[in-house]
Amino acid sequence: MDGAEFFTDSLPFYFNRVEETFDLQMHSHRFVEIVLVDEGEGFHFINEDIVRVTKNDVFLLPAGTRHVFRPGHAGSRRPLIVYNCLYEPGKLLSCLEHLPGFHELIRSRPYLFEGAAPPSPGWLHLRDGGSPWNIWFRGAYREFTERKPGYLLQLYGRFIELAVMLERHLERLGSSSAAEPENRMMEEVLRRIDTDYASRLSARSFAAATHLSERHFHRLFRQYAGCTFHDYVRNKRMERSRELLASTRLPVMEIMRSVGYADKKHFLSLFKQSTGVSPTEYRRQASLHHPLEGK
């Protein structure tokens, strides 16, 4: 694929959200592709490798990478759905490289904009535990498809945000060996939140349980997860809300309580901030793609 069908002079990038099937064949392209697994599970065949994928897996694929996704099961009630971000790195670089501080992105800039392939195996696989990539993709996709006034500025701004996110992620990876005990501690904290997100969770209680000051806990958490403790808990609850709206007929208020909220106005406000629409509208849109069958 050479990208001619995707890009224009003013839009050297393209976003979509698609259901992966068994129809597409192994392929490569002359542009960079970043993929977020949004729903379901399956497999990603990349060059000679096979990677099992689940929700919130992120892949950075340089130009020339051969790949294809495959659902876990044919006809699954939980289809494999991904967000794709395609872009021409050279054209995008020419728009961003003169910004103050851009050349300080010594880790992410070569991979995102200068055509450098990551170290072996030549592509990057990230896990989006705290949902910053999920939020990035949803926001960028919404701007690209709705095209409201100022959307071009928003989208170029999104790529600056993307470069900073990847820079900080790669920096954390580089220092992970020195901070291994702290990383294990934070991994256990994330596991607990992922399991007990509907409970009353506080940074203070986690700090006490890990024998850290609250301030130090917040710093370690943000360094490890890429977002604040508050944002991680909120994103996990919003993620579960979206899943229940799309896959069940539970009333909105029951879903609200099941993910840990008691205040209707607060929940509706957070949900709209997260998705751009109300829970009712989100369920309606989800049902157009995958109608429920008596759930």
Describe the protein.
- The chain is an alpha+beta fold and 295 residues long.
- It is globular.
- Strand 3 and strand 4 form a beta hairpin.
- The protein has a 5-stranded antiparallel β-sheet with strand order 1-7-2-5-8, with helices on one face. The protein has a 3-stranded antiparallel β-sheet with strand order 4-3-6, with no helix packed on it.
- Helix 3 runs antiparallel to helix 4, helix 5 packs across helix 7 and helix 6 packs across helix 7.
- It folds into 3 domains: 162 residues, Sandwich (Jelly Rolls); 47 residues; 59 residues, Orthogonal Bundle (Arc Repressor Mutant, subunit A).
- It contains 11 helices and 8 strands.
Task: Compute the number of helices.
Answer: 11
Strand content: 15-25%
Mean pLDDT equals 88
Rg over CA atoms, rounded to whole Å, is 20 Å
Just name the CATH architecture of the largest domain: Sandwich
Q: How many β-strand runs?
A: 8
CATH topology group of the largest domain: Jelly Rolls
SSE arrangement, N to C: EEEEEEEHHEHHHHHHHHH
Could you give the order of strands across the largest sheet? 1-7-2-5-8
Helix content: 40-55%
Q: Under the CATH scheme, which class of the largest domain?
A: Mainly Beta
CATH superfamily of the largest domain: Regulatory protein AraC
Distance from first to last alpha carbon: 41 Å
- How many independent structural domains? 3
Largest sheet: 5 strands, antiparallel
- Judged by helices, strands and strand pairing, the structural class is alpha+beta
Low-confidence stretches: none
